[in-house]
Amino acid sequence: MRLVAVALVGGVLSYALAYALVAAVSLLFPCVDSQSACRLGDLIGYGLIALYAPLATVTFAIVSWRAPNERALSHAALALLAPIAAMLLYGVLTIGFPTDPMRDGPDLLSGVTAPTLIVVVQWAILRASVMRAIPA
Q1: Which residues contact 90 (CB under 8 A, 6 or more apart)?
Q2: What is the Cα–Cα distance from 21 to 52, expressed in whole angstroms?
Q3: 116-131: per-residue pLDDT in tens?
Q4: CA proximity to 27, closest of 39, 13, 17
């Protein structure tokens, strides 16, 4: 039951970090396109955070409750990262590689890095907790 609480704390922490990442990206990168296009990238980033933070928290809480080991947590993390990788692969196959980092970089950071950060932070917190609980 302690790992479920750790999963909830990790969910809140990863939500805050991803939210800070999208906010920092929207403040630090200048807007190259129209203002509405720049705000649409931020909206997509915030939407993915709102979707992935609870999804990853619930997934990791269930996995840590049912099978509190490192392998189960790694499989859950891969299952959560698969849709992000598929979305990135689909974008590269249909549009191509991003060529202008000032124009495409903020959207890539908001849309791909923020949900990935959520999953990786929660996985790392739970993995450290599971590894500490295992006797040496």
Answers
A1: none
A2: 14
A3: 999 999 999 888 888 7
A4: 39
